[in-house]
Amino acid sequence: MKLTTAQALVAWLVAQRSETLEGVEVPLFPAVFGIFGHGNVLGLGTALAEYRDALPLWRGHTEEGMALAAVGLAKATQRRQVAVAASSIGPGALNMVTAAGVAHANRLPVLLLPGDTFVSRAPDPVLQQVEHFGDPTATVNDAFRPVSRYFDRITRPEQLIATLPQVARVLTDPADAGPVVLALPQDVQAETYDFPDALFEPVLHHVPRPRPDRRAVTDAVRVLREARRPLLVLGGGVRYSGAGGQALEFAERHGIPVTETTAGRTLVPHGHPLFAGPLGITGAASANALAGAADVVLAVGTRLQDFTTASWTVFAPEVRLVHINTARFDAVKHGALAVVGDADATLRDLGSDLGEWTADPDWTVRAQAVRSEWDAHIDKLRAPTPGMPSYAQVVGVVNELSEASDYVMTASGGMPGELVGGWRATGGVPTMDVEYGFSCMGYELAGAWGAALARTGTDGLVTTLLGDGSYLMLNSELFSAAFAGHPLVAVVCDNDGYAVIARLQEGQGGTPFNNFYADCRTNHATPPRVDFAAHAAALGCAVFSAGELDEFREAYARARVAARAESRPAVVVVRTRPSAWTEAGAWWEVGVPQHLSGRTEYDRGKAGQLRYTHPD
Q: Which NCBIfam families match (predicted)?
C-alpha cells in the first residue's frame, strides 16, 4: 500500500484496539489533540484530515495544554486508552516537554508527535530550527529523551514497520507505561513507501497480567505470617489493574488495615471498617499513626514517593517492606522484598497461600478507631464559619454535592492536601485524579479537558479544583473545552498568590517574599487584581462567583447544572482563606539553611529517616 509516512502512521493508529477493565473493546487511540504549523500541517495534518471520521482531531490552544489533556485522558481511562498530541517543530514541540514529564512521573501512556527539521538538511537552517554547533543531528526534540519511555526519530518511512510494535508495547505494558515520542521530520512525513498491508490490520491489545515468581510469593507469605501488625498500602497500580475489589477482599480475609496513596485514592469506600485513610504528608494522621506502628508493610502498585512515605519517616525503623509491583524498578526500592507481578493476580496467589492466617484482632479494629478520630477532625475543619471559606470547606461542599459517578481532580499547591486528606469516597470505581507525581501547575484545567473527553457518554461530571496561581499558569484549554463542547466544572480558589509555598517559606523561618502578592515587587501603590470571572467568561465558560460558604454551595450547585445543560465548562470563582490548611502531621524533607528556625525540625526528621530494609 503506497502511503506517505504520515498516512501510514495515522492508518496504523486507527487500526489499534484496546479493551476496558470491563472487557469492552474500544479504540486504543480515541483522540488526537493538535496544533498545526509549517512542520506538520501538510504532512501529518493532511493525513489526519483524510482519517477525520475514524480518528477525531480536537484543536488545542497551547501545546503543553493539549498534551496535558492527553495525560488526563489516560488517567481517566485507567491507562486503557491513549491520546495523541501533535505539534509543529521548535517551540511547539518544546512546549510539550513538560507534559511528557508529567506522564513519565505518573507512569501514564501518551503518544507525542512533534514535528522536526529536514533530514535532508538542504534548506538548513529552517524557521524554528535551533542549530547545535557540534552535532548537526541534534534538534530541540532531543530534549524529550530524558522524559520519554520510548523515543524515536523517523528518518525513513520504512522505519515505522520496526518502531510501531515498540510504540504499542510501551503504551500498553503496565510495567513500562509512559510517554512515547516519535519525532517526525517534515520532509519524511511527506515521503511515500510501499507499506505491507498487514501493518494496518486491526490489532486488539490485551494488557498483560504477569504472575509473580513462586519463590517470591513463598517468601512474602513467610514475612506476613510472622507479622502481628501488617498494613496494606494501595497505589495507582491497583487502580490500573482493576484490583480494588480483590485488594479489599484480601484485607477482609486476613484482617489487615488498608491505606491509599495519592494515585490509589478512592479505591476504598470511606466507611469501610478496615480503611485507615490516605497515607503520607497529604494524607491522614490516622493512616500515618498506623504506618508508624506497623511491623510489616505490604505495598501494592506504588512508586513510594516522598509524599507517601513522608520522606521515609512514616514507617517504623524496624519495619519489613514487601512490595508487589509490575515494575521491578519500583518493587526493589529501599530493599523491599520484591514480588513482581500484576496486582490482582499476585494478591490472589498471596491470599491463597496465606490460607486462614489473620492479623492480631486488636490491630484489625484499630483502623476504624483512628480513622474516626480523623473524620471528627475533618468535620471540624468543614464546619461553617463566617467570612471567606477555607480549602477544606470548599472540598467539603464539592464532596457533599458530588454524585457517586463524578470525577474530581487537582494537581499542585495546597489543594492536594485537602482533596487527598479530606475526600470521602464511595469506593469501587476510581473517581479522583490528583497529579502529585510531577505537581504540574496548569494540569488542573488541561487535564480536566482530557478527563471530560474520556468520560463522554457517562453520567458522571468532572470537577477540577485549583488555585489562582495554577489558573494564571495555564488556562487556555478552558476555551478548548468550551469550543469542543465538553462539560466540566472548575472551582478556582483565589487566595492572592502562591499560598502553599508561602506556608513552606514562612513555616521554616523564611522571610515572606515573592509568594503572596503583598510580598511581591510592584511599582503600583494599589496593584491590579485579576478578574477571574470576567476572564473565564471571555473564554466561553459559564461563570459563578461566591464570597462565603453558603454562596459557594449555591454557586457550585448551579455550575453543575449549567455545565451539563450547556455542554461547556462552568467556572466557580471563590475567595478563600490563605492560611487555613489540613495537616496530617507528617514530615517532608526540603533543604533548610542552617540559619533558619526550621533547621532544628529538619535535623530531627533526618535522624528518623528509614534508610534501607533488608529483603530477607
A: myo_inos_iolD
Beta strands 2-4; 230-234: pairing state: unpaired
Question: How is residue 248 written as a grid cell?
Answer: 479489599
Rounded Cα gap, residues 210 and 343, in angstroms: 9
Instruction: Give CA–CA dist 441/126, Å, rounded.
Output: 33
Question: Do the Cβ atoms of 533 and 572 come closer than 8 Å?
Answer: no
| Cα separation values, 133 from 125, 136, 326, Å | 12, 7, 42
Q: CB under 8 Å, gap of 24 or more: what pairs does 154-158 form?
A: 154/5, 154/182, 154/183, 154/184, 154/185, 154/188, 155/119, 155/185, 155/188, 156/188, 156/191, 157/4, 157/5, 157/8, 157/188, 157/191, 157/192, 157/193, 157/195, 158/193, 158/195
pLDDT confidence of residue 614: 85
Q: According to the model, what pLDDT value does residue 459 have?
A: 85
Distance (Å, rounded) from C-alpha 93 to C-alpha 440?
18
Could you tell me the domains of the chain?
2-204 (3.40.50.970), 214-373 (3.40.50.1220), 383-575 (3.40.50.970)
Q: How far apart are CA 255 and CA 252, in angstroms?
A: 5
Strands, sheet with 203-204, edge to edge from the N-terminal-most edge strand: 25-27, 16-19, 203-204
pLDDT confidence of residue 83: 98
In whole angstroms, give the CA distance from residue 401 to residue 309.
32
Torsion of Cα atoms, 435 then 438 then 443 then 448, to 10°: -30
Closest CA to 79 of 2, 17, 157, 171: 171
Cell for 596? 533558619
The C-alpha cell 524496624 sits at 318
How much is the pLDDT for 429?
81
Query: What are the grid coordinates assigned to 141, written together?
Result: 526534540
Q: How far is 340 from 324, CA to CA, in rounded Å?
A: 6
SS (H, E, C) 122-189: CCCCCCCCCCCCCCCCCCHHHHHHHHCCEEEECCCCCHHHHHHHHHHHHHHCCCCCCEEEEEEEHHHH
Q: What values do phi and psi take at 287, rounded to 5?
A: -65, -40
Largest CA distance in the chain: 76
- Pairwise CA distance, residues 172 & 50, whole Å: 26
pLDDT of residue 458: 87
- d(C-alpha 431, C-alpha 239), whole Å: 10
CB within 8 A of 178, min separation 6: which ones? 103, 104, 107, 108, 109, 148, 149, 150, 170
pTM of the model: 0.97
Which pLDDT belongs to residue 298? 98
